[in-house]
């Protein structure tokens, strides 16, 4: 079996790592950096171990999960590992018939549209994903002082895949259900909050040092709809790990108008995409929240001097917040040159270890 050998088996305490300290607004030796979707996608070593293994199968195979999660830590020297899985893994674990189709994403065989469909969405029992706990424990043992971030999809983003049946640009069936049958919508999201919260808790109890709730598509909503139809369910998911005392990160795309509501859902760190400057985000959020972000992933294709200036700008703007975790504004694009990610990691460290 593959063993958990990180590149920098540093002996520190992940609970006192730069990531966790920044999330709590404490002083850091350097600004921590990791990249959404750092595992998988662009790495040749990832493509090699994934060869011939379907995505959902890879997510349920601890040897692969451990290896793939560690790959970007070894290669880039990032300040956190993110558990290799997918937001639909717990849905598949409760029996939803779905697949992750290469080049498309999650596809649900029978979309959820009626009350009867709730019968196909039972609660997630921890022993249905015992492999996730096992992978987490092995990773935590191998990562030493590098923190592991556990994650789950938020109820709205999960609901969008279930109701639309797959990736969606306009979320029209989801919004039609939300407004057309609010009672069913809330019942659906309450179930999803249980699934999501349980998935976070399994990873947290097995030793993850932080969790991130991905509400990737929440930016499709008005603030009023977010507050009425979504925030209470995301708050329920995040509350599943509240007693464990680890930092909770809450992320969405295009959510500039929702930042304070996403923070109030129970986050310590609010993810900010590239559309909003971190200084504006910090002003909106106030002194109680750290921020995470927000380099435009497309800019990783620009000349190095452009990237360098963007990183410096983001670091300067991030100083306005209670704490700053450097990241992209959304996930790494598949064609990204991995060497650029390594270089950005080194740059963030260098610029913040020796502030001007
Ligand atoms: O660093 C990592 O790669 C960690 C693992 C990870 C995470 C955190 C994967 C692996 N997926 C996710 C989360 C995820 N999955 C999100 C939230 C994050 C985000 O917004 O980027 C979302 C929306 C999904 C759904 C999903 N899964 C998509 C998006 C489709 C759409 O609607 O546009 C896709 C393409 C997938 C498949 C997937 N998940 C992960 C990988 C490496 C892949 C590609 C694998 C393959 O196709 O073989």
Automatic annotation (TrEMBL):
<comment type="function">
    <text>Catalyzes the decarboxylation of four acetate groups of uroporphyrinogen-III to yield coproporphyrinogen-III.</text>
</comment>
<feature type="binding site">
    <location>
        <position position="161"/>
    </location>
    <ligand>
        <name>substrate</name>
    </ligand>
</feature>
<dbReference type="Pfam" id="PF01208">
    <property type="entry name" value="URO-D"/>
</dbReference>
<comment type="subunit">
    <text>Homodimer.</text>
</comment>
<comment type="similarity">
    <text>Belongs to the uroporphyrinogen decarboxylase family.</text>
</comment>
<dbReference type="InterPro" id="IPR006361">
    <property type="entry name" value="Uroporphyrinogen_deCO2ase_HemE"/>
</dbReference>
<dbReference type="GO" id="GO:0005829">
    <property type="term" value="C:cytosol"/>
</dbReference>
<feature type="site" description="Transition state stabilizer">
    <location>
        <position position="86"/>
    </location>
</feature>
<dbReference type="GO" id="GO:0006782">
    <property type="term" value="P:protoporphyrinogen IX biosynthetic process"/>
</dbReference>
<dbReference type="GO" id="GO:0004853">
    <property type="term" value="F:uroporphyrinogen decarboxylase activity"/>
</dbReference>
<comment type="pathway">
    <text>Porphyrin-containing compound metabolism; protoporphyrin-IX biosynthesis; coproporphyrinogen-III from 5-aminolevulinate: step 4/4.</text>
</comment>
<feature type="binding site">
    <location>
        <position position="86"/>
    </location>
    <ligand>
        <name>substrate</name>
    </ligand>
</feature>
<feature type="binding site">
    <location>
        <begin position="37"/>
        <end position="41"/>
    </location>
    <ligand>
        <name>substrate</name>
    </ligand>
</feature>
<keyword id="KW-0210">Decarboxylase</keyword>
<feature type="domain" description="Uroporphyrinogen decarboxylase (URO-D)">
    <location>
        <begin position="149"/>
        <end position="165"/>
    </location>
</feature>
<keyword id="KW-0963">Cytoplasm</keyword>
<dbReference type="InterPro" id="IPR038071">
    <property type="entry name" value="UROD/MetE-like_sf"/>
</dbReference>
<keyword id="KW-0456">Lyase</keyword>
<keyword id="KW-0627">Porphyrin biosynthesis</keyword>
<dbReference type="InterPro" id="IPR000257">
    <property type="entry name" value="Uroporphyrinogen_deCOase"/>
</dbReference>
<feature type="binding site">
    <location>
        <position position="216"/>
    </location>
    <ligand>
        <name>substrate</name>
    </ligand>
</feature>
<protein>
    <recommendedName>
        <fullName>Uroporphyrinogen decarboxylase</fullName>
        <ecNumber>4.1.1.37</ecNumber>
    </recommendedName>
</protein>
<feature type="binding site">
    <location>
        <position position="330"/>
    </location>
    <ligand>
        <name>substrate</name>
    </ligand>
</feature>
<feature type="domain" description="Uroporphyrinogen decarboxylase (URO-D)">
    <location>
        <begin position="32"/>
        <end position="41"/>
    </location>
</feature>
């Amino acid at each position: 079996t593959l063993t958990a050998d990180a590149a920098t088996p540093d002996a520190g305490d992940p609970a006192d790592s730069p990531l966790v300290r920044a999330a709590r607004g404490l002083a850091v030796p350097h600004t921590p950096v990791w990249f959404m979707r750092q595992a998988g996608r662009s790495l040749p070593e990832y493509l090699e171990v994934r060869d011939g293994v379907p995505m959902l199968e890879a997510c349920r195979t601890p040897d692969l999960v451990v290896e793939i999660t560690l790959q970007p830590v070894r290669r880039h020297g990032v300040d956190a590992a993110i558990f290799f899985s997918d937001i639909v893994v717990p849905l598949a674990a409760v029996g939803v018939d779905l697949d992750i189709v290469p080049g498309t994403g999650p596809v649900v065989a029978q979309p959820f549209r009626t009350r009867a469909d709730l019968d196909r969405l039972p609660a997630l029992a921890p022993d249905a994903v015992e492999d996730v706990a096992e992978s987490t424990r092995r990773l935590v043992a191998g990562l030493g002082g590098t923190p592991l971030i556990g994650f789950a999809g938020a109820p709205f983003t999960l609901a969008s895949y279930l109701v639309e049946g797959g990736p969606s640009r306009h979320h029209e069936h989801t919004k039609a259900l939300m407004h057309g049958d609010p009672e069913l919508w809330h019942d659906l999201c309450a179930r999803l909050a249980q699934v999501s919260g349980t998935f976070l808790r399994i990873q947290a109890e097995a030793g993850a040092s932080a969790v991130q709730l991905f509400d990737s598509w929440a930016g499709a909503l008005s603030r009023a709809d977010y507050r009425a139809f979504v925030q209470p369910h995301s708050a329920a998911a995040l509350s599943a790990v509240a007693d464990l005392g680890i930092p909770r990160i809450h992320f969405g795309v295009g959510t500039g108008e929702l930042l304070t509501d996403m923070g109030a859902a129970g986050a310590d760190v609010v993810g900010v995409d590239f559309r909003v400057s971190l200084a504006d985000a910090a002003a909106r959020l106030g002194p109680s929240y750290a921020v995470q972000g927000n380099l435009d992933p497309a800019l990783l294709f620009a000349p190095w001097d452009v990237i360098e200036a963007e990183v410096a700008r983001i670091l300067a703007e991030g100083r306005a917040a209670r704490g700053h975790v450097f990241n992209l504004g959304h996930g790494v694009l598949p064609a990204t040159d991995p060497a650029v990610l390594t270089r950005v990691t080194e740059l963030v460290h260098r610029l913040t270890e020796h502030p001007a």
